[in-house]
């Protein structure tokens, strides 16, 4: 398998797909491309029509979109282990993952992921509403699963919310006690620490993701 990703400092969707392989120790060749460069589009044009990252190639099959990749790898190689065992919890995990996948537009646009930076931004009412909703999701799940991950064992839901933990760290977002505990669980995990270490070695600047001012 080959997983095409973008700059680790900025690419939230790449992180989500990458985490699944790292958490479960699955072998995959990582091909990192610099975002918004000619080589980025030229390379992906021969891989998938979407010309976006992440894209997974497995035995001639191209799968794009983070959630589709997570589902494919879970079904094909993990026998369902990346979702909760309990059917009701699995339904909730899928619901909040889909909510992350399609929602929180204000947060996404106003707080781009920027692992290396500490920034200050003036947030809109919509972004503050997004933050409050995510805080509520995290707090509710931590109350039910005090060990830290959203559904006890690490799951696709945790992959979907991992970039948000980094965004909150970059922009100094204040969280409730339980949500903060979950954020720290994410940030301190070995997989996330590996991603951050690799992101710190990058020197490319994507101006459109340098939101706000230095803190």
What can you tell me about this protein's structure?
This protein is of the alpha+beta class and 215 residues long. The chain has 2 domains: 80 residues, Glutaredoxin (3-Layer(aba) Sandwich), CATH 3.40.30.10; 110 residues, Glutathione S-transferase Yfyf (Class Pi), Chain A, domain 2, CATH 1.20.1050. It is 53% helix and 9% strand. The protein contains 9 helices and 6 strands, in the order E-H-E-H-E-E-H-H-H-E-H-H-H-H-E. The strands form 2 sheets. A 4-stranded mixed β-sheet has the order 2-1-3-4, covered by helices on one side. Strands 5-6 form a two-stranded antiparallel sheet. Helix 1 links the parallel strand 1 and strand 2. The longest helix has 20 residues. It is globular and about 45 Å long. The N and C termini lie far apart (40 Å).
Number of strand segments: 6
How many DSSP H or I helices? 9
Encode the helix/strand succession as letters. EHEHEEHHHEHHHHE
Q: What portion of residues is helical?
A: 40-55%
- CATH class bucket of the largest domain: Mainly Alpha
Radius of gyration: 17 Å
Uncertain segments of ≥5 residues (pLDDT<50)? none
Let me know the largest β-sheet: 4 strands, mixed
Give, in spatial order, the strands making up the sheet with the most strands. Answer: 2-1-3-4
- Whole-number total of structural domains: 2
Mean pLDDT: 96
Shape: globular
The appropriate CATH architecture of the largest domain is Up-down Bundle
């Amino acid at each position: 398998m080959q997983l095409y990703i973008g700059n680790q400092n900025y690419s939230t969707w790449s992180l989500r797909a990458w985490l699944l392989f790292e958490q479960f120790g699955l072998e995959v060749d990582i091909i990192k491309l610099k975002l918004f460069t000619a080589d980025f589009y030229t390379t992906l044009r021969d891989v998938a029509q979407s010309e976006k990252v992440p894209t997974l190639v497995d035995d001639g099959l191209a799968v794009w979109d983070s959630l589709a990749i997570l589902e494919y790898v879970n079904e094909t190689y993990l026998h369902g282990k990346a979702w909760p065992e309990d059917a009701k919890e699995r339904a909730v995990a899928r619901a909040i993952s889909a909510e992350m996948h399609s929602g929180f537009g204000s947060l996404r646009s106003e707080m781009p992921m920027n692992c290396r930076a500490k920034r200050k931004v003036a947030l809109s009412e919509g972004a503050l509403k997004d933050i409050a909703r995510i805080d509520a999701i995290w707090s509710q799940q931590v109350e039910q699963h005090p060990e830290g991950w959203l559904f006890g064992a690490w799951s696709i839901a945790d992959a979907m919310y991992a970039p948000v933990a980094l965004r909150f760290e970059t922009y100094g977002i204040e969280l409730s006690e339980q949500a903060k505990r979950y954020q720290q669980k994410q940030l301190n995990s070995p997989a996330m620490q590996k991603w951050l270490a690799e992101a710190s070695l990058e020197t490319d600047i994507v101006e459109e993701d340098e939101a706000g001012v230095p803190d």
